[in-house]
């Protein structure tokens, strides 16, 4: 019985060593002189951006887009800076396509969600944590806002009807 326990212990040790080497967690963050309360469309927690219903025919070609929807990220309660402060919004897509769009978790096929740097602006290619400029806290100000936008995009064309749902995390970068 002791031999079996010894053999099991000897064979399990390399597996535990291998598992530990492959499972690294990296924690990142910032310490900043500036912090603010953040809201998306006035919601401080769990914001939802309601996009319009569009026709599948509007997304029938590769790269076609529809349903652009603005949303506002605002900061308040900031410490008033002595000079203008550029604040970046860092986005992290929870499920991103190879083209840098948010993958659809809903039932519509060949439909993704594309983040835009501003209303009518350029596409933000999500590749890991992606920082986007736009928020500027003016000298002496304690609040600011910036309008971003999202839209449907069909990376492959031939979209089919169904639901669309995509998520991204966000944080502010004061540095």
Automatic annotation (TrEMBL):
Keyword terms of this UniProt record: Signal
InterPro entries, per this entry? Adhesion_dom_fimbrial, Adhesion_dom_fimbrial_sf, Adhesion_dom_sf, Bact_Fimbrial_Adh_Pro
Q: Which residues form the signal peptide?
A: 1-21
User: Is Signal one of the keywords?
Assistant: yes
Question: What biological-process GO terms show up in the record?
Answer: cell adhesion involved in single-species biofilm formation
Q: Which domain of life is it from?
A: Bacteria
GO CC term, one of those recorded: pilus
What's the protein here called?
Fimbrial protein
Source organism of this protein record: Pseudomonas fildesensis
**What phylogenetic lineage does the species belong to?**
Bacteria, Pseudomonadati, Pseudomonadota, Gammaproteobacteria, Pseudomonadales
């Amino acid at each position: 019985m002791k031999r079996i326990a010894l053999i099991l212990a000897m064979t399990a040790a390399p597996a535990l060593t291998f598992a530990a080497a492959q499972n690294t967690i990296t924690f990142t963050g910032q310490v900043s002189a500036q912090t603010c309360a953040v809201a998306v469309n006035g919601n401080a927690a769990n914001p939802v951006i309601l996009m319009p219903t569009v026709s599948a025919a509007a997304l029938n070609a590769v790269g076609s887009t529809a349903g652009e929807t603005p949303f506002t990220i605002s900061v308040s309660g900031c410490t008033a800076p002595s000079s203008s402060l550029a604040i970046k919004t860092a986005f992290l897509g929870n499920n991103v396509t190879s083209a840098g769009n948010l993958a659809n978790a809903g039932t519509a096929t060949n439909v993704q969600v594309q983040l835009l740097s501003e209303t009518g602006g350029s596409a933000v290619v999500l590749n890991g944590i992606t920082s986007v400029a736009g928020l500027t806290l003016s000298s002496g100000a304690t609040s600011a806002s910036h309008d971003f936008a999202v839209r449907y995009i069909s990376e492959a064309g031939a979209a089919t009807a169904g639901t669309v749902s995509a998520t991204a995390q966000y944080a502010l970068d004061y540095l």
